[in-house]
């Protein structure tokens, strides 16, 4: 598709509609027209037309001049869950892993420079952020992100690096060379361990989930706190359980050839 064809097929009004929906968050659950215009950098007349359209469709409510999302927005996420067999397949495995480790088990997918939680079995709250389905965390500072990125093509890896390896704690890897080396380690051993790089006291291990073709489509993670375990315990006790669970999910997706080491074709920058 040429650039001209791409521009012709691009629907800007749809982009603006999503911009308005995504402007609402935990810090701004209710906003005025003026606040939404400022948040989206759109004109007030444009935001007003979008809000009235979304209101007619049932996605927002504007009583008293203050706008908020309605529960119908949740149906968008439900359609994603219903259309992805991976989540349904993985759920019992997540539950079993959580029972084995007595820690939270999660499934996540890569979305640009972020990791998005797509399934989760919580055991106890270990992070200050509210981890729920749809929660986004940075790729570079999480074990899930590294498990997803280690086998990705070079342009995806460089996009994450170019976006900036922001420090979240004193232990966050922010040097590009060190980050690339960390991805090589993940690729060589087949799993990822991150200790207190996203949040103080948070430790997590992750392993890739592969589909029938062998492509990495998700990451499985087990998370805990420094008060409950250390990195050595995760390596010796949790990683073997994590890898077996990841292999079972991959097998249920039709993959029968994933080696325990995770080495499968030296693509990307390796």
Topology:
Blueprint (H helix, E strand, L loop, with lengths): L2 H7 L2 H12 L6 E3 H8 L3 H14 L2 E2 L4 E4 L4 H10 L1 H17 L2 E8 L2 E8 L14 E3 L4 H7 L4 H10 L12 H14 L2 E4 L6 E9 L5 E10 L5 H22 L18
Helix pairs in contact: 2-3, 2-4, 3-4, 6-10
Question: Can you characterise this structure?
Answer:
The structure is a single chain. The protein has 2 domains: 3-73, Orthogonal Bundle (Arc Repressor Mutant, subunit A), CATH 1.10.10.10; 84-252, Beta-Lactamase (2-Layer Sandwich), CATH 3.30.450. It is built from 10 helices and 9 strands. It starts with a helix and ends in an 18-residue tail after the last helix. It has 270 residues and is of the alpha+beta class. β7 and β8 form a beta hairpin. The longest helix has 22 residues, at 231-252. The chain has a 6-stranded antiparallel beta sheet, with helices on both faces. A 3-stranded antiparallel beta sheet has the order 1-3-2. It has helices at 3-9, 12-23, 33-40, 44-57, 74-83, 85-101, 143-149, 154-163, 176-189, 231-252; strands at residues 30-32, 60-61, 66-69, 104-111, 114-121, 136-138, 192-195, 202-210, 216-225. Helix content is 45%, strand content 19%.
